[in-house]
Amino acid sequence: VLFRSVHLDQWATFITTPKVTASEATIRVDTTVVNQSPVARIVGLSLVLVDPAGRSLKTVDFKTSEAVAPGKTQDMRVEFPISEPTLWSLENPALYRMSVALVEKETPLDGETIPFGIRDARFDPDKGFCLNGKYFKIKGVCLHGDGGAVGVAVPLRVWERRLQALKAIGVNGIRTAHNPPAPEF
């Protein structure tokens, strides 16, 4: 792995959808840039949004660059609307992908691609959990990061079978236990 003195902080990029309707959604990308170089660096973000069908939907170049002092970190946020989003639901778990590139002038320094779903999820103290305007009960389980007899090096097919079986018996929520789950999960 090539070490870059200016890079996106590990696990610091989050994509949220603070406003969601059937006709429009607001996409918010938050990340943290780390400058481990001896000089201040002027950097920005370039984003590419890919829809659930795999089509490039929107490209956003973050024109306002940020100066990141040497040895410091800088939080960055980009927010933009999209029309007629495909909403994530239990019946249709549609995932978008956001490619986030850290750039200095025209040169890419670092990047990552993050899958995410667009949905309106909230809790109402009187009615319970609401997803995209539909109220229902969460029927959850707690899962450990192992695959039984196969240990913690769990093949993807074991996860697929396990999640299909849980969904078949009505599970619609999972809490992972003890350790961070594998990325495949």
Annotation keywords:
single chain; 185 residues; mainly beta; 4-stranded antiparallel β-sheet; 1 helix
Describe the structure.
It is a single chain. The chain is mainly beta and 185 residues long. It has 1 helix and 14 strands, in the order βββββββββββββαβ. β10 and β11 (128-131) form a beta hairpin. It starts with 5 loop residues before the first strand and ends in a 9-residue tail after the last strand.
Q: What share of the residues lie within helices?
A: under 10%
Global morphology: globular
Give the ordered list of helices and strands.
EEEEEEEEEEEEEHE
Low-confidence stretches: none
Q: Provide the structure class.
A: mainly beta
Please compute the radius of gyration using only Cα atoms.
19 Å
Beta-strand portion reads over 45%
The biggest sheet amounts to:
5 strands, antiparallel
Kindly report the average pLDDT value. Answer: 91
Number of helices: 1
| CA-CA gap between termini | 24 Å
- Report the count of strand segments: 14
Explain the layout of strands and helices:
Blueprint lengths: L5 E3 L5 E7 L3 E12 L5 E10 L5 E6 L4 E3 L4 E11 L12 E9 L2 E10 L4 E4 L3 E4 L2 E3 L3 E4 L12 H13 L4 E4 L9
Parallel strand pairs: 13-14
Antiparallel strand pairs: 1-3, 2-3, 3-7, 4-5, 4-6, 4-8, 8-9, 10-11, 11-12
